[in-house]
Design brief:
This protein is an alpha/beta fold and about 375 residues long. It has two domains: about 5-125 and about 360-365, Enolase-like, domain 1, CATH 3.30.390; about 130-345, TIM Barrel, CATH 3.20.20.120. It contains 13 helices and 14 strands. It has helices spanning about 55-75, 80-90, 90-95, 100-120, 125-130, 150-165, 180-195, 210-220, 235-245, 260-270, 285-295, 315-320, 360-365, and strands at about 5-15, 20, 25, 30-40, 45-50, 140, 170-175, 200-205, 225-230, 250-255, 275, 325-330, 340-345, 345. The strands form five sheets. It has a five-stranded parallel sheet with strand order 7-8-9-10-11. Strands 1-4-5 form a three-stranded antiparallel sheet. The longest helix has 21 residues, at about 100-120. About 50% of the residues are buried. It binds (2R,3R,4R)-N,2,3,4,5-pentakis(oxidanyl)pentanamide and magnesium ion. Magnesium ion binds near residues 230 and 255.
Length: about 375
């Protein structure tokens, strides 16, 4: 399985709305930025990170893959994934400029492509290569009905529809208005609409400060909030630990963390209850597994964040003992050879060989952006 081609790619896929917003971002497309690897025996693997489809920064990721990682990969044996991860992540010159940001997103894409390649070579879905399945069913929770950009009425109607018509047993709504009273009003309305038995999570995307979160949580506790995600700035270990001690609402975070070390700091401080690693921001599947194992050792549940819209995490969630619910955002699924599929509120277990990362032939042409 000698790697003979490393081909970066940038795809910008539209959302199923003109645009959406959380407290911190407004976007119109999802960026699928990654790589196709080929091996001399005819093997092929796809891996990608997820971005907000900003072409200038997406080109930096693609350039990192093409200029920095490709020379380290060509001629190597794709089966030696652990060694290759070390070679790429700890290359002295890249370690100096990397360990987070562009280089780590690029590493994630490469690592995912190597796993996809190996699973395809073995003729099995990734969850099987990883020793699964560990469970019969995997609950999906719907994030796509909870955007901050939705009116109160659209928010309530969408959440009710997701539960009553589509069969979801969990939804997540965004919070983070300048006036938290607005978010309390929306939270109360959604809870009333979906009833007491559906899990209802909230996500602040790192907007508020500690006193605002404290005041908000004291009043939000009445609505049985499943978790409060990224209440504070992404890297604030002490702040999250303080909030965790002062509210009964569980804390979830991890979508903005780049390393197993960052997760270790939050876990050691008691600053996180639901651990949310993402293969697209950590160093791919290899480092995701380290984080999930570390969470499991502390008996903390893992709920992966959908930076790849769950194409890969559905495999990992079926294959890891710490995995619980998984995020559902149906923006890009139809552009993959094996789309994620939710029925009666549960993710179907993938059947095809690989990691779920192969775009359709049409998508590779239709959404492609020039690399330079
Ligand atoms: C918009 N999921 C998230 C969207 C999402 C973001 O940037 O992607 O809200 O990543 O927080 O939990
Ligand atoms: Mg989030």
């Amino acid at each position: 399985m000698t790697i003979c081609a490393v081909e970066p790619l940038i795809l910008h896929m539209p959302l199923n709305a003109d645009s959406i917003a959380d407290s911190t971002h407004r976007i119109t497309h999802w960026g699928v930025v990654g790589v196709r690897l080929r091996t001399s025996d005819g093997g092929e693997g796809y891996g990608f990170t997820g971005t907000h489809a900003d072409l200038a920064s997406d080109r930096l990721i693609a350039a990192c893959i093409g200029h920095c990682y490709a020379p380290l990969l060509l001629g190597e044996d794709a089966r030696e994934g652990r060694r290759l991860w070390q070679k790429l992540a700890r290359a002295p010159a890249l370690q100096w400029v990397g360990r987070a940001g562009i280089t780590q997103l690029a590493l994630a894409a490469v690592d995912i492509a190597l796993w996809d390649l190996r699973a395809k070579a073995a003729g099995v879905p990734l969850w099987h290569l990883l020793g699964g399945p560990l469970r019969d069913r995997l609950d999906a929770y719907n994030t796509d009905v909870g955007w901050l950009s939705l009116s109160d009425q659209a928010l309530v109607d969408g959440c009710r529809h997701a539960v009553e018509v589509d069969g979801f047993r969990g939804v997540k709504i965004k919070v983070g208005h300048d006036r938290p009273a607005v978010d309390l009003r929306r939270l109360e309305a959604v809870r009333r609409a979906i009833g007491p038995d559906v899990t209802l999570a909230i996500d602040g995307n790192g907007k508020w400060d500690l006193p605002t979160c404290r005041r908000f949580c004291a009043r939000a506790e009445a609505f049985d909030v499943f978790w409060f995600e990224e209440p504070l700035w992404y890297d604030d270990v002490a702040g999250h630990a303080a909030l965790a001690r002062g509210t009964s609402i569980p804390i979830a975070l991890g979508e903005q963390l780049y390393s197993a070390d960052a997760f270790a700091a939050f876990m050691a401080a008691g600053a996180v209850h639901y651990v949310q690693p993402d293969v697209t921001r950590l160093g791919g599947i290899t480092e995701f597994l380290q984080v999930a194992d570390a969470a499991h050792a502390r008996r903390l549940p893992v709920a992966a964040h959908a930076g790849e819209m769950s194409q890969v995490h559905v495999h990992l969630s079926y294959a890891h003992p710490a995995a619980t619910v998984l995020e559902y955002i149906p923006w890009i699924k139809d552009h993959f050879v094996e789309p994620i599929r939710v029925e009666d509120g549960c993710f179907a277990r993938p059947q095809r060989p690989g990691a779920g990362t192969t775009p359709t032939a049409e998508a590779l042409v239709r959404f492609a952006k020039a690399l330079a």
